[in-house]
Amino acid sequence: MASTAFELKGKRVFVAGHRGMVGAALMRRLAREQADLLTVSRSEVDLRDQAAVNAWFAAKRPQAVFLAAAKVGGIVANNTLRAEFLYDNLAISSNVIQAAHATRCEKLMFFGSSCIYPRLAPQPLREDSMLAGPLEPTNEPYAIAKIAGLKMAEAYRSQYGADFISVMPTNLYGPGDNYHPEYSHVIAALIRRFHEAKISGGGNVVVWGTGTPRREFLYVDDLADACIHLMKTYSSPELVNIGTGEDISIAELALMVAAAVGFRGEISFDASRPDGTPRKLLDVGRLSGLGWRATTSLEDGIRLAYLAYRADSDGRHPSDLPVPDNGPILRINRR
Ligand SMILES: NC(=O)c1ccc[n+]([C@@H]2O[C@H](COP(=O)([O-])OP(=O)(O)OC[C@H]3O[C@@H](n4cnc5c(N)ncnc54)[C@H](OP(=O)(O)O)[C@@H]3O)[C@@H](O)[C@H]2O)c1
């Protein structure tokens, strides 16, 4: 596994998907790197549009790209919008990766996800489990498209010598999460439901599934910090998992979110809703060997996420949140 020094300072750095949860966290973190940050809104350049992407890259010539634009969602969205998840993600990945190569971009980071490993891969999930078994059926279209993206980054490296790397983040949460009532990820969904129940004085919150699946969660500003670290120091075809290496049951998580929100009613579980993969935890040995580990505890991260959820109502976008001098933003000091 090669290691190299790649300087971001003074470079034209494109964050694709800068208004998304990951993209906004990258923007906050990159503000400390003295790079020339490039962004473009979807209304100007739809990344599914190959000609528009090529023209934009030819004009702006980014030297580094974080490919954090994607069609992303929770279990219901993945299972319902199957054609969109496949088409959008295939088109975005292939357009951006090819345009980056054609304009001689020096470095690109592609974002995979822990949910694209095989459904029954041994836990904790190692990077070499990729493609070693059948996928989780509920998000197979998303996984197929994302795996194609990983393979493109790998193939452009082996055929053209392009310095394209791929990371595999675990479940993320934090400022800029999607709070859609049906299409959100679990922590965002829980924050919203507990908050609304608290405000309306509701006594019972129903959590989807049995509460027994175990999941790992990473605060999104920690992810951004890991990505900058890898962009600067890592150059190799092997995937790199990004997570905390610790998991928690959904039932325990629900109690933690309820406490952070201040909800004091009852919590029940709707076992008729799908659980998805029984357990999902990343092996983060490779990442720690590369010199990075997460610093935000789940308890602190959930409080910060809840603060950000409430700040959303004052009209601030996550990419406009204050930029810290160092460390993740809005860190809570524990007594
Ligand atoms: N969220 C997680 O838990 C998680 C976990 C593992 C990996 N990841 C990966 O991290 C990356 C970012 O995820 P995220 O959670 O930040 O997603 P997100 O909040 O939904 O943001 C996605 C971004 O992509 C942009 N986008 C989508 N389709 C586009 C299109 N056709 N043209 C231009 N822009 C488009 C969106 O633009 P608009 O603002 O216009 O909608 C948005 O800015 C994805 O590759 C995802 O697979 C996420």
Extract low-pLDDT stretches.
Answer: 321-335
Percentage beta strand: 5-15%
> Secondary-structure element order, as H and E?
EHEHEHHEHEEHEEEHEEHEEHH
The major beta sheet can be summarized as: 6 strands, parallel
Radius of gyration, taken over Cα atoms and rounded to an integer in Å: 19 Å
Cα separation of the termini: 41 Å
- Mean model confidence by pLDDT: 91
Strand order of the largest sheet: 2-1-3-4-5-10
Overall spatial form = globular
EC number: 1.1.1.271
InterPro entries: Epimerase_deHydtase (IPR001509), GDP_fucose/colitose_synth (IPR028614), NAD(P)-bd_dom_sf (IPR036291)
Organism: Bradyrhizobium agreste
Keywords: Isomerase, Multifunctional enzyme, NADP, Oxidoreductase
Task: Present the secondary structure layout.
Layout: E1 12-16, H1 21-30, E2 36-38, H2 50-60, E3 64-67, H3 75-80, H4 82-102, E4 107-111, H5 140-160, E5 164-169, E6 171-173, H6 186-200, E7 204-208, E8 214-215, E9 217-219, H7 220-233, E10 240-242, E11 248-249, H8 250-261, E12 266-270, E13 279-280, H9 285-289, H10 298-312
Parallel strand pairs: 1-2, 1-3, 3-4, 4-5, 5-10, 6-9, 7-12, 8-13
Antiparallel strand pairs: 8-11
Helix pairs in contact: 1-7, 2-4, 4-5, 6-8, 6-10, 8-10
Architecture overview:
- The protein is an alpha/beta fold and 335 residues long.
- It contains ten helices and 13 strands.
- The chain has helices at residues 21-30, 50-60, 75-80, 82-102, 140-160, 186-200, 220-233, 250-261, 285-289, 298-312; strands at 12-16, 36-38, 64-67, 107-111, 164-169, 171-173, 204-208, 214-215, 217-219, 240-242, 248-249, 266-270, 279-280.
- The strands form four sheets. It has a six-stranded parallel β-sheet with strand order 2-1-3-4-5-10, sandwiched between helices.
- Helix 1 packs across helix 7, helix 6 packs across helix 8 (250-261) and helix 6 packs across helix 10 (298-312).
- It is globular and about 55 Å long.
- The chain starts with 11 loop residues before the first strand and ends in a 23-residue tail after the last helix.
- Bound molecules: NADP nicotinamide-adenine-dinucleotide phosphate.
- NADP nicotinamide-adenine-dinucleotide phosphate (NAP) binds at residues 17, 19-23, 42, 46-48, 68-72, 88, 92, 111, 113, 169, 171-172, 178, 185.
